[in-house]
Amino acid sequence: ENTLYEILTTIKLPGDLESEIMAKGGTGGVENYTIGLTDAKNKLGIQFDGNTGTIVANYKVDVGKGSVEPFIIKEGENIQTLTKAKFPLSEDKVPVRIGNETVMVPKKSISSQIQTDKERDLSDIDITYSDIGESLLKGSYREDDYDKSLNVSGFKKLPKNIELSGSFDKNLLTGSDQSTLGLEIPIGEYIN
Predict the structure, then answer these.
(1) Cα dihedral angle (108, 89, 179, 164), rounded to 10 degrees?
(2) What is the tens place of the pLDDT at every residue in 60-82?
(3) Contact 169, 159 (CB under 8 A)
(4) d(Cα 44, Cα 130) in Å, to the nearest integer?
(5) What is the DSSP letter of 187?
(6) Which residues pair with 127 in a beta bridge?
(7) Predicted local distance difference test score (pLDDT) of residue 4
(8) pTM (predicted TM-score)
């Protein structure tokens, strides 16, 4: 008969750091263990999973009024990275619904996301300018084993609720490209 157990230990370290060790197993031996290191402000996180050999690390750096968050995942020989950066361009905040909650976000901001994956030879870069409810401009570059492409898209609100939108896509492997341009006019408002 195998008696199962789960042990969780939290160790306070100097400063705002603490380590958490969890072991799961039975009388036959330890089946899995994880070791984590975090800080009280949730700006640092490192976790090692003894079962899969996966290491996940992230750190949040405040830069002025913005932030940069790099994430690194090492699983076997593969390394994946994801770096997110957000910078407000205005003091004004507006409510935005994310999932089931409403949060206040800067009305104007610029953000970027850079992702790499060694195994898939992936490089993915997104840069976005946002003025909520007024305009959006997004540029993306993607390169992996199967794709090498560039995309730019966006919209701009004009007077009288008219919206101008467009996009440009280019396949850098084949040289083919596609462009779209749209104009949305709320005719119903002007019928009377």
Answers:
(1) 40
(2) 888 888 889 898 998 888 999 99
(3) no
(4) 28
(5) G
(6) 112, 139
(7) 67
(8) 0.73
How far apart are alpha carbons 20 and 35 in whole angstroms? 6
Over residues 13-55, the pLDDT tens digits come to: 777 777 777 777 666 665 677 777 777 666 777 888 777 778 8
Beta-carbon contacts of 101 under 8 Å, excluding residues fewer than 6 positions away, are none
pLDDT in tens, 84-141: 999 999 999 999 888 899 989 899 999 999 999 999 898 999 999 999 989 999 999 9
The three-state secondary structure class of 143 is strand
Beta-strand pair 61-63/66-75: antiparallel
* Strand (E) or helix (H) holding 9: strand 4-12
User: CA 191 to CA 110: how far, in whole Å?
Assistant: 38
> Smallest Cα–Cα separation from 110: which of 152, 166, 155, 65?
65
Q: How many CB atoms lie within 10 A of CB 39?
A: 15
Q: How far is CA 98 from CA 92, 94, 110, 137, 188, in A?
A: 18, 13, 18, 20, 30
Residue 91 DSSP symbol: S
Alpha-carbon distance of 132 to 35, in angstroms, equals 41
